[in-house]
Amino acid sequence: MTNKVNIMTDPGADMLSVNQAVSLTIKTRRKDKKLSLDELSRRAGVSKGMLVEIEKGSANPSIAILCKIAAALSLSVADIVNVTAAPSAFLVKRPDMPVLWQGDSGGSARLLAGTRGPDMLELWRWEMYPGEKFTSSGHPSGTVELLHVEEGSLTLTVEQSELQVPEGNAAVARTDIPHGYANHSDRLLVFTMSVSERHS
Question: For residue 95, what pLDDT is reported?
Answer without folding.
Answer: 85
